[in-house]
């Protein structure tokens, strides 16, 4: 159920001069994992806690290379789908639900960003839902994540046949991510580096930890990710975020939020 295939699609234009949408932190903006096809669909709910109507733009980007566009079909009452994003206005105290159609035979993955056009702070969450004949239905919901987490830790549990999928996103060219995996006693099991978002590496990296690191079988522990930006210019926006999905053999699925500290920002 978690064997992911990324599909290349056509180029697009990224919106500019928009404000990150959040209720908890002004840096909250990303959905690090959006899935569509192969039995999967993604449902985003945008909520306006303010009294006045709030307009927004949501961009869905494939996990391939910067500048690519995701040829997704989406539905939602009161939204307008344009070449540079999905536009909508949420009534004061109301919400809007946007869903991918999920009808494609092949799974494609990417990520999303939510921007406030009118200036109000918006709350939002995404539900990943799996439904296919002769398979156990599964779904999980997660909130938006921060634009920049320089370092975070996510727990994993690969006992009793469990598995972990880690999605990492950066739109800063040449972001260099260091990954260190430790067991419950803090002993290092494996470490490595990967590059996100350059001419050879996509802006979203998806790691199936169970397949990539079979030595994690029957273990619990943590995955530590930290990032540096060796190619970033002075005025480049620095972005890095991630989320993990935990799956069990019985078909249940749960989102695992990354854990960070203010000292790491």
Description:
- With 265 residues, the chain is mostly beta strands.
- The chain folds into two domains: 19-144, Sandwich (Hypothetical Protein Tm1070, Chain: A); 151-260, TM1070-like (Hypothetical Protein Tm1070, Chain: A, Sandwich), CATH 2.60.290.11.
- The chain is 2% helix and 48% strand.
- It has one helix and 20 strands.
- It has one helix at 209-212; strands at residues 19-20, 28-36, 40-47, 54-62, 74-75, 79-82, 85-90, 95-100, 108-116, 123-130, 138-143, 145-146, 151-157, 163-169, 175-183, 188-196, 204-208, 220-228, 241-247, 253-256.
- The strands form four sheets. Strands 1, 2, 4, 6, 7, 9 and 12 form a seven-stranded antiparallel beta sheet that branches. It has a five-stranded antiparallel beta sheet with strand order 5-8-3-10-11, with no helix packed on it.
- The protein is globular and about 50 Å long.
- The two termini are 34 Å apart.
Contiguous runs where pLDDT drops below 50 for at least 5 residues? 1-17
Q: Order of helices and strands, N to C? A: EEEEEEEEEEEEEEEEEHEEE
Mean pLDDT level: 85
* CATH-derived architecture of the largest domain: Sandwich
Helix content: under 10%
**Structural class based on helices, strands and sheet pairing:** mainly beta
Q: Which fold name fills CATH's third level, the topology of the largest domain?
A: Hypothetical Protein Tm1070, Chain: A
Please count the helical segments: 1
Strand content: over 45%
Largest sheet: 7 strands, antiparallel
Q: What top-tier CATH class of the largest domain fits best?
A: Mainly Beta
End-to-end separation in angstroms reads: 34 Å
Q: Describe the global form.
A: globular
Radius of gyration: 18 Å
How many structural domains are formed by the residues? 2
Number of strands: 20
